[in-house]
Amino acid sequence: MSTSASNSAKGKRVGLEINEDEASPQKRFAYSSSQVTSIKSPLSQRGCSSIAANNLDLSTSYTSIANNTTKLDISTAFWRNEALRLQQLRETDQAEIESLKAYKRGKEGSDNKSYDIKQILIDREKEIASERKEWEDRYSELKEESENISASFMNVLKKVQQLDGKIEQLNEKIVQLENAMAELECEKSELVIINKRLELEKGELVNAQIELQEEKKSLSISLQNHRGESSKTIEDLEMKLKDMGDITKQRDEFLSAYEAILAKSSNSEAEIENLQEELDKARAKLKRVQSIEEEIHQSRLEKLREIDI
């Protein structure tokens, strides 16, 4: 009787241990799952894929363990009821034994009757021992299953802890990425402002280019007019040069005449004086001709420079 009660108590204790271990990992596992599913940043979707897969594996493992736990609870309850039934049978047998003893004392039955009672008691004890052995074997199996489930729970807890660590790392990375995104947004705003400034400068450059085109056209017209004037000036210079060539020819003739006069002037001083006067006049004319040639040459050089510019 004490053995059955002890076994019943052990079966009850096993069931309680399973229920206590069952609550905490479930709650913690649910928290980890919500932690993973609460991450909605688009930057973390790829980073969460492997953790989501691990979460799915953990969910599957947890469901399997929960099912095994339910089966274990059902089996434990069944064998607890069996233990109670055996206890009741033992008490019934004890009552029957007491009743038979009273009957034996009251009736003083024959040896055959006494033998029948002893045989019944022996058979009943064997039946109870067989049922007890079967129940103890089943209890050992249930205990082993309970230990396996506890080990599975520990593995799940370790995986959940690892998953929590990965989630914390992922959250830190998400914070870093969000900070980087904020910095990029600031840089983007600065780039937008710079782009607007560049657009304004581009408009100013376009306007300046238009003004330059107009100024270029004006300069082109002025240059064409200036070239026309320069062409006319060059023609005038060519005419002056032609006249200068005539003057040079006259000068040569005058010098020839002057040399002839000098040859003739050796006869008299009067003629020499006259020739000296004529020579002075010729020299003055020569200086004037040279001055005119220099002016024409300088004017031509200036016009050529203006044309080149």
From TrEMBL:
Residues 1-27 are annotated as: Disordered. Residues 125-218, 258-295 form a coiled coil. Keywords: Coiled coil. This is Uncharacterized protein. It comes from Kwoniella dendrophila CBS 6074.
